[in-house]
Amino acid sequence: MSAVLVVNSGSSSFKYQLIDSETEKSLASGLVERIGESSGHTTHRGPNGTSERSLEIPDHTVGFRAMLDAFAAEGPSLDENPLDAVGHRVVHGGKRFFEPTIVTPLVEINIEDLSDLAPLHNPANLEGIRAAKKAFPDVPHVAVFDTAFHQTLAPEAYTYAIDAELAERHRVRRYGFHGTSHKYVSETAAAYLGRPLGELRQIVLHLGNGASACAVDGGRSVETSMGMTPLEGLVMGTRSGDLDPAVLIHLARRAQLSTDDLDELLNRRSGLLGLSGRGDMRDVRRAAGRGDDAAALALQVTVHRLKHYIGAYTALLGRLDVLTFTAGVGENDAALRAEVLSGLEVLGIRLDPERNATTSREARVISADDSAVTVLVVPTNEELEISRQSLEAVRGATGG
Ligand SMILES: Nc1ncnc2c1ncn2[C@@H]1O[C@H](COP(=O)(O)OP(=O)(O)O)[C@@H](O)[C@H]1O
Ligand SMILES: CC(=O)OP(=O)(O)O
Ligand SMILES: [Mg+2]
């Protein structure tokens, strides 16, 4: 059996999955967490169940080694499942990368060059690539970019209304992110409903630690809420999402915040964390349930912003057929889904409370039978999509 190893690196963690190249079955998956802290943690799910270890993981190279140790100790054996490719999630591909791309030294330089446009993500993605190349020097490594799916945005959607020449020189425009997830989820939604992708107008809400909305017309991304960087748009775990750009100017002048301070503030100390002191939605919800006003407001701001985007994207699409929730919060937080959709009957959206409250790991309908818009929960699987695209790239390169 041959397989694809997929690495989804974040700033302080990475997720991985070993996926059978023929059957697409997940042979193993896991998570390496708290990289850079003194007490790192690995979770590995293989053929013998789940195993966990705590150890110091100073960087991604050590983290990658810890993952290989878990494969060696718990299986499945990487010798018995030779790798066709290692697929890497890379968040920012700029204007250059639209396709899954075999990683060469030049590609690495380009990914590094885009780091200032995705400071939480691209440096970590690159560290993961370098660690993986050291461990598997003879296997093709493929980068799959979050930005790729949004290459179909029209100029009026990707252009910011600032000095055109300055914007061009500094690559300032909307790129959009979570594209691998938006693509996978919108295609899965159409297949699940047995309706032609080309005829559907969809909104996908990817609500994880990072969060973004995407309007998908006939399978093409036509608008998305993240912008030049993964900071714009929805309220996220630690990121602010939308705000008046003059807030930055004001804080620079009045609170003497430097550009690095502002970067840190908006990317790492805002969103749910900034509003309520907690960046994890489960903690925010628990606190709100106990009567914590700051947590309740954080939820209200999150919900208000989501309604705003659903309305705007329905208008842009001209009609809405399918609305899908995905990622950690979208898949699991039934209360949030109900809050977001309440009052949206004007758009033809009617939730079925019982269907919404059901927990499941499968794609499912949560709208009422008389809802004009079909509302779904579809678990995302960025790793599966990356493995598919990695195999395509490798087979394309070898003409196989
Ligand atoms: N049962 C749940 N209810 C609410 N939120 C949840 C639940 N389970 C997970 N989450 C949220 O999902 C988020 C992580 O989502 P995920 O898609 O894994 O994000 P990322 O890939 O960005 O790390 C966490 O911040 C957590 O708040
Ligand atoms: C692009 C992005 O925000 O990714 P994540 O949600 O994994 O942080
Ligand atoms: Mg994610």
Outline of this structure?
The protein has helices at 60-74, 105-113, 122-135, 155-158, 164-169, 179-193, 246-254, 259-268, 271-276, 281-289, 293-317, 327-332, 334-341, 353-357, 382-398; strands spanning 3-9, 14-20, 26-33, 40-46, 49-55, 83-90, 101-102, 141-145, 201-207, 211-217, 220-224, 322-326, 364-365, 374-377. With 400 residues, the protein is an alpha/beta fold.
Task: Please state how the strands of the largest beta sheet are arranged side by side.
Answer: 5-4-3-2-1-6-8-7
Helix content: 25-40%
CATH superfamily descriptor of the largest domain: ATPase, nucleotide binding domain
Coarse shape: globular
Hetero groups bound? adenosine-5'-diphosphate, acetylphosphate, magnesium ion
Low-confidence stretches: none
Largest sheet, described in full? 8 strands, mixed
Specify the CATH architecture of the largest domain: 2-Layer Sandwich
* Number of individual domains: 2
Q: Over the alpha carbons, how many angstroms does the gyration radius reach?
A: 21 Å
> What is the averaged pLDDT score?
95
CATH level 3 topology of the largest domain: Nucleotidyltransferase, domain 5
* CATH class label of the largest domain: Alpha Beta
Percentage of β-strand residues: 15-25%
First-to-last CA distance: 17 Å
Secondary structure class reads alpha/beta
Number-wise, the strands total 14
Q: How many helical stretches?
A: 15
Catalytic activity: acetate + ATP = acetyl phosphate + ADP
Family: Belongs to the acetokinase family.
Active site: 146
Binding site for Mg(2+): 8, 382
Sequence-ordered SSE layout with sheet pairings:
Elements: E1 3-9, E2 14-20, E3 26-33, E4 40-46, E5 49-55, H1 60-74, E6 83-90, E7 101-102, H2 105-113, H3 122-135, E8 141-145, H4 155-158, H5 164-169, H6 179-193, E9 201-207, E10 211-217, E11 220-224, H7 246-254, H8 259-268, H9 271-276, H10 281-289, H11 293-317, E12 322-326, H12 327-332, H13 334-341, H14 353-357, E13 364-365, E14 374-377, H15 382-398
Bound molecules: adenosine-5'-diphosphate (ADP), acetylphosphate and magnesium ion.
Acetylphosphate is lined by residues 10, 91, 121, 146, 177-178, 208-210, 230.
GO cellular component, one term: cytoplasm
Binding site for substrate: 89
Function: Catalyzes the formation of acetyl phosphate from acetate and ATP. Can also catalyze the reverse reaction.
